[in-house]
Amino acid sequence: MTQAIGTTAGSDGIAIRRRRRPATPYVLLIPAVAALLIGLGYPVYWQIVTSLQEFGLMQQFGAPPTFVGLDNYARIFTDAEVWSVVAKSIAFCLVNALLTVGIGLGLAVLMRAVSGWVRITMQITLLLAWATPLVAAVTVFRWLFDYRTGVVNWIFVQSGFESFDGYNWLGNVWTFFMVASFIVIWMSVPFVALSIYAGLTQVSEEVLEAARIDGAGSRQILWRIIMPLVRPVIAIVLLLQIIWDLRVFAQIRLLQDAGAPIAETNLLGNYIYELGVGSQDFAGAAAVSLFVLVLTMVLSGPYVRYLMKEDAA
Amino acid sequence: MSAVAADTVAPTATTPQRTPLRRRRVRPGKVLLSVLGLALAAVWVFPVYWMMNSAVTPDAILGGDTPQFLPLSFTLTNLQSVLTDSGFLNALGMSLMVTGLTITLVLAFAFLAALAISRWRFRGRTSFILAVLFIQMLPAEGLFIAQYQMMSSLGLLNQVIGISALYVAMLVPFTVWMLRGFVAGVPIELEEAAMVDGLSRPRAFLRITFPLLAPGLIASGVYAFLQAWNEFTTALVILPAESAQTLPIWLRSFLSASANRGINWAEVMAASTLIAVPVIIFFLFVQGRMTSGLVSGAVKG
């Protein structure tokens, strides 16, 4: 990544201002590039170097690190606990991304079907959920799911499920992840629903009119005309959700404060945190971090290509 | 979910169009959909409502057996006690300093870079754009250990400068991408016309182009504010000291401290509300761009 900034692979020949060979754009880029190199470039470089070194207690006290090649990777990726964290992260990410996009798509189609003021009400409530800061959102959900006085347990008990009286949602691994999913989905559905809705409104009335004249029913119009036209939008929001749901560090960390079993509820970000800040195993943490970065890069490829294409258009 | 909605859409519109004389027929399917829509809206807004409702309700009532769904026992005590909490005020000051410094630097750096990539074609331009787009996607979780190590060796843990430097790096790529659209939207001909009329290039830029970019700078500034104000992950690692907490970190420790003596949910919700309300206001201010942001890549997760 750092190299990418320095190399000059570009072959854009046409200069808007041809008066002289421009030095100006490079000068203008200096502050931004410097900020990126300091804030991100150096940490990535440090991680690569550290992941190839022994970085134990001796090094904490100033001993020069020894180069150990891929030993850290071998150590980390033969550890069953790491693979269980990776599996949990991927499962959590896929389930949430698919549910989010499914619910968002449903809401978008629904918003298109209802009349003006209902739609505006839906849009405003979605925006309120989207705008809520993450820490505040997790805190509210902890209150909603509080085992003593939370509203959720109260509703269950009122509906006749007495066993939910005092049920501790965050104490059990499965219900812990369920509450985490509620938060993630609640927070990310608005973006998906509003983006897909924006895509739906782009489908021109003439196309729909033509389909109607040709005798298509609404079900056919929905599945044969509208869905294919908004498919690119759906693909992009799904990809973004997958990338974003891979890094649900804060939600998990904040829910763990309520007394959840930490080792069993860690996802990738939390595992790195425990490894680095908790156990001071910087080499191992660096190796897992690079794994996460590479995974994100690979997943981001299609999105970046899409943006470049939009930019050129 | 989507299947349910789609199935209910279909029968509504396939009903044959009988046209009674100038009376809008209320179709039962449509009513059902509206009810469903309103019910979902209620589900979605409930957590926000519940946060604000609990913030103005005495804690004794929140701890009761039956939740009170309306703010019937309205009180400002909770909000007052948070506003006079020294930890809150300290965190507020810290958040304001970090956000202020971050916004200033991000806007300055990103503006210059946006100018470069939208006004010039130069070698390395495409590589720079590609790098910016990829960097934008990098998760803080993949970097924070290294950043912690770096700031710790520089002695910048718990310092405004340290965390702001990381926020600037985190936000510059996305702000460059967003501002680039605004800069490209101001035709260079305007500036050139002003130069024909006798202004120097810098003056033409300052007098003509810059004012036209103001809305773009404001929108990008609001974005940077939202991101820096809400940031939790990096702050948790880089600002371990209690005296250096920003608001999100403070809210977490406020809740933990409260948990030690049976959580005072009224105060915790008052604190959440106080942190959320400015964000919600600013967010609604730029929401039009947020919704169309997907197409331009101007949404950051």
UniProtKB/TrEMBL annotation, chain A:
It is a multi-pass membrane protein. Residues 86-303 form the ABC transmembrane type-1 domain. It is found in: Cell membrane. Its main location: membrane. The chain crosses the membrane at residues 26-48, 89-114, 126-145, 173-200, 221-244, 282-304. InterPro entries: MetI-like, MetI-like_sf, UgpAE/MalFG_permease. Belongs to the binding-protein-dependent transport system permease family. Keywords: Cell membrane, Membrane, Transmembrane, Transmembrane helix, Transport. This is Sugar ABC transporter permease. SUPFAM superfamilies: MetI-like (SSF161098).
Automatic annotation (TrEMBL), chain B:
The chain crosses the membrane at residues 31-52, 91-116, 128-148, 160-183, 204-226, 263-286. It is found in: Cell membrane. The keyword 4Fe-4S does not apply. Residues 92-286 form the ABC transmembrane type-1 domain. It comes from the Bacteria. Residues 1-19 have a biased composition (Low complexity). Keywords: Cell membrane, Membrane, Transmembrane, Transmembrane helix, Transport. Its main location: membrane. Gene3D superfamilies: MetI-like. It is a multi-pass membrane protein. It holds the Pfam family BPD_transp_1. InterPro entries: BP-dep_ABC_trans_perm, MetI-like, MetI-like_sf. Residues 1-21 are annotated as: Disordered. The keyword Cytoplasm does not apply. Belongs to the binding-protein-dependent transport system permease family. This is ABC transporter permease subunit. It comes from Isoptericola chiayiensis. The lineage of its organism: Bacteria, Bacillati, Actinomycetota, Actinomycetes, Micrococcales.
